[in-house]
């Protein structure tokens, strides 16, 4: 890894095609969550760097080579980037895994997903067709999709490469020039991918990156009068600030703010198929996934059997350092570890039974941010654990009596991102798919984080707007109507 820490992007911002030191001259330490040690540094960017990045993006969009590139050429560049990412899977997976603490095989899957986003949106770049519209006699009317211009992207640390791919891939495919403020807790993989973009020959200023603290670089970007749209993924609290900033500049935004997504298990479900998926959906990335399946609603007649079988699986789970590639890694930071422990401490104080706990690997490096997976239940629906996002490997079990109660519980949080419905009854599948308040419903399956092609996003506290799929692409364009009066 030591060679990689020397790469040109370390401690720098990407502005107008050049890697430059931030105006402050300062850096932020990059910590490996597996041992709590500093192993690299990133730029500590601020408002002056954001100003420069927005100006560079504007130039690229209005006067630069990027803005003049035909759609199919943009698509080709994106697909070339996808291939380059795949050529560097091992290097990038190692970076991602060390930076976030996630097991190496999850890092690898994330890098492959990132490549897939660039491939998908690369292929879509020249397929944003407009419409002709039947109108009055003597007129021809048509609508065209146009890029917003300069798009701002503020993304979190849980899936740096994947969220980079889905957000930047779509925005560039649509023809925007981008300014990205990645998360201070993890962004090395996307900095390395930006180096690859430079090597491939992306025109200068198409993508600009200013790493730095959220309250400084992030807030300056969200409030900047030179941006035309904001794409944000992160906490509801920051999402509120982002939307307020967008409102002051009269621009749009998409907010993807996480969830408290339920998996609903009916007695007639194929438990053999369901239970491994239920476990994986909370263990993946140590539960730090916006779409983690963090609640499991279980029909009462099978509650004892299901919780016993889930408990048996939980006891087998092992958390440890990213490079040992176990079931799960550490949490991202001391702060997140303390937050998750806070929820667990409160649950114990309030008498919520712990049904099972996983293990920590032997010989853990001291200083890592480890929390073993925990299964709790029954969790009363009014408890914080039943309705707040923990963002850790913590699964809450809630029994229900019938379909009506299952639906009421599923919809009983302020969130609405994803849900899983497990039942053999086809009519019930459809009733619940329609009744559940969420952006995605999986029937007899669950996809935490997967599905590049599948529109994804929330309602309520989970945010608004859609990412992934073609819907994600359409967020990055606006419609212009043109009317000809030709008599
Ligand atoms: P956060 O929302 O503060 O951070 C996300 C991004 O926003 C980062 O790039 C950060 O630098 C930036 N940011 C922070 N404050 C900002 C501001 N005032 N203006 C502009 N940008 C700002 O989330 P954080 O603090 O890392 O995590 C807290 C909780 O948020 C987690 O425990 C989890 O529940 C939730 N979360 C949800 C995510 C999701 O995938 N939907 C991802 C990360 C966190
Ligand atoms: Mg924060």
Characterize this entry briefly.
By secondary structure, the chain is of the alpha/beta class. It contains 17 helices and 22 strands. The strands form six sheets. The chain has a seven-stranded mixed β-sheet with strand order 15-17-18-13-12-19-20, sandwiched between helices.
Task: Assign the CATH topology of the largest domain.
Answer: Aldehyde Dehydrogenase, Chain A, domain 1
The fourth-level CATH homologous superfamily of the largest domain is: Aldehyde Dehydrogenase, Chain A, domain 1
Rough outline: globular
Largest sheet: 7 strands, mixed
Strand order, largest beta sheet: 15-17-18-13-12-19-20
Can you tell me the CATH architecture of the largest domain? Answer: 3-Layer(aba) Sandwich
Question: How confident overall, as mean pLDDT?
Answer: 97
Total beta strands = 22
Structure annotation, total helices: 17
> How far apart are the termini?
69 Å
Number of domain modules: 2
């Amino acid at each position: 890894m030591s060679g990689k820490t020397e790469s040109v992007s370390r401690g720098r911002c990407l502005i107008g095609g050049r890697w430059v030191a931030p105006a402050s001259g300062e850096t932020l330490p990059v910590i490996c969550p597996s041992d709590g040690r500093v192993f690299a540094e990133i730029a500590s960017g601020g408002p002056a760097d954001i100003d420069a990045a927005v100006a560079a993006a504007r130039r690229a969009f209005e006067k630069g080579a990027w803005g003049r590139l035909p759609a199919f050429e943009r698509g080709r560049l994106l697909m070339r980037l996808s291939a380059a990412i795949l050529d560097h899977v091992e290097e990038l997976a190692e970076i991602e895994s060390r930076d976030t603490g996630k097991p190496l095989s999850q890092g690898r899957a994330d890098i492959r997903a990132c490549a897939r986003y660039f491939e998908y949106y690369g292929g879509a770049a020249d397929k944003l067709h407009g419409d002709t519209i039947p109108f009055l006699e003597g007129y021809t009317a048509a609508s065209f999709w146009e890029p917003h211009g300069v798009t701002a992207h503020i993304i979190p640390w849980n899936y740096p490469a994947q969220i980079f791919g889905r957000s930047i891939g779509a925005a560039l495919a649509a023809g925007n020039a981008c300014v990205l403020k990645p998360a201070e807790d993890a962004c090395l993989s996307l900095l390395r991918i930006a180096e690859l973009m430079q090597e491939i020959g992306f025109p200068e200023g198409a993508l600009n990156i200013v790493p730095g603290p959220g309250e400084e670089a992030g807030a300056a970007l969200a409030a900047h009068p030179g941006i035309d749209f904001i794409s944000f993924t992160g906490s509801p609290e920051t999402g509120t600030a982002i939307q307020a900033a967008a409102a002051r500049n009269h621009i749009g935004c998409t907010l993807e703010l996480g969830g408290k997504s339920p998996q609903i298990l009916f007695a007639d479900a194929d438990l053999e198929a369901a239970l491994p998926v239920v476990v994986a959906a909370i263990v993946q990335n140590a539960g730090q996934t916006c779409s983690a399946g963090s609640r499991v609603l279980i029909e009462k007649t099978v509650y004892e059997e299901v919780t016993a079988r889930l408990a048996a699986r939980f006891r087998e789970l092992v958390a440890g350092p990213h490079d040992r590639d176990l079931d799960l890694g550490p949490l991202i930071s001391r702060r997140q570890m303390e937050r998750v422990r806070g929820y667990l401490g409160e649950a114990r104080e309030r008498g919520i039974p712990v049904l099972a706990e996983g293990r920590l690997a032997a010989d853990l490096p001291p200083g890592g941010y480890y929390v073993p997976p925990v299964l709790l239940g029954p969790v009363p629906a009014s408890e914080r654990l039943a309705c707040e996002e923990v963002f850790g490997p913590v699964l809450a079990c809630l029994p229900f009596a019938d379909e009506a109660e299952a639906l009421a519980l599923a919809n009983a949080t302020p969130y609405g991102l994803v849900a899983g419905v497990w039942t053999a009854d086809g009519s019930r599948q459809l009733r619940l798919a329609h009744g559940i308040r969420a952006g995605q419903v999986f029937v007899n399956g669950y996809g935490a984080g997967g599905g590049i092609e599948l529109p994804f996003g929330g309602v309520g506290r989970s945010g608004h707007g859609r990412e992934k799929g073609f819907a994600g692409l359409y967020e990055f364009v606006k419609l212009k109507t043109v009317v000809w009066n030709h008599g």
